[in-house]
């Protein structure tokens, strides 16, 4: 058997040392990357229930919140009529944050001993929505009496506000249908299934398939939107604070919501 020379042995030793050094660097880099990834991984998840009229603004708020709070993942946001959401929460639905379109349905939740003291974060008013081109020739609340009109159901915030607005103006309307949330009203108008519907000003903002008319008395019927964290889930109060903060306020205003300080109970 041929023996290795001292020079060859030294070469092999150097190669082995170099291989170990590279492996050590790679292992250290992998550990650092793993630590960085681990530090960005969510440590808590949130489930949010919000009034249907908040969908576009809250979808954007959720994106901004997630970018600033990688430790908290938003598992789901359920959008529906506030009365429906309040009933679900009281009956035990696992919800960490509730944003209602009125104080009445928020009270259903807080009176059941759930949530912290709610804070008003936005306001909204009603408009008459008509299909593009206004085929029903609706110009005022009075015209709704002779048109095919869709309204929110009375127990829904937009329905309660619509009833007050119509009563204040002395107009009686027999609705073709009463929907469980304002989004359903708007969709029927967009689809041409109704000549008109009463929806929030924020619902028609940026819509090209509907036109809106600000009815007389709308400024006197203002819906106030409260929000609260439910339970002790980490990140829930952070989300509430984000909605109340500068970025949340800016997004809400961009979507047409009014300043919370200007509103009264709706």
Number of helices: 9
> How many domains, as an integer?
2
Structural class: alpha/beta
CA-atom Rg in angstroms? 28 Å
From the 3D coordinates, which CATH architecture of the largest domain would you assign?
A: 3-Layer(aba) Sandwich
CATH homologous superfamily name of the largest domain? Periplasmic binding protein-like II
- Could you describe the largest sheet, including whether it forms a barrel? 5 strands, mixed
Approximate shape = elongated
N-end to C-end Cα span: 97 Å
What is the CATH level 1 assignment of the largest domain? Alpha Beta
Rounded mean pLDDT score: 88
User: Secondary-structure element order, as H and E?
Assistant: HEHEHEHEEEHEHEHEEHH
**Taking strands numbered 1, 2, ... along the chain, how are they ordered across the largest sheet?**
2-1-3-10-4
The assembly state of the depicted protein chains is: single chain
Q: How many strands? A: 10
DSSP strand (E) fraction? 15-25%
CATH topology of the largest domain: D-Maltodextrin-Binding Protein, domain 2
What is the percent of helical residues?
A: 40-55%
| Low-confidence residue ranges | 1-9, 11-39
Describe, in plain words, how this protein is organized in 3D:
- Belongs to the bacterial solute-binding protein ModA family.
- It comes from Glutamicibacter protophormiae.
- With 266 residues, the chain is of the alpha/beta class.
- The chain folds into two domains: 44-122 and 225-262, Periplasmic binding protein-like II (D-Maltodextrin-Binding Protein, domain 2, 3-Layer(aba) Sandwich), CATH 3.40.190; 126-220, Periplasmic binding protein-like II (D-Maltodextrin-Binding Protein, domain 2).
- Helices cover 41% and strands 21% of the residues.
- The protein is built from nine helices and ten strands.
- It has helices at 6-40, 55-68, 82-90, 103-110, 157-168, 182-190, 201-204, 236-244, 246-254, and strands at residues 44-51, 72-80, 97-99, 119-124, 126-131, 149-152, 177-179, 196-200, 210-213, 223-229.
- The strands form two sheets. It has a five-stranded mixed beta sheet with strand order 2-1-3-10-4. Strands 7-6-8-5-9 form a five-stranded mixed beta sheet.
- Helix 2 (55-68) packs antiparallel against helix 9 (246-254) and helix 3 packs parallel to helix 4.
- The longest helix is centred in the N-terminal third of the chain and has 35 residues, at 6-40.
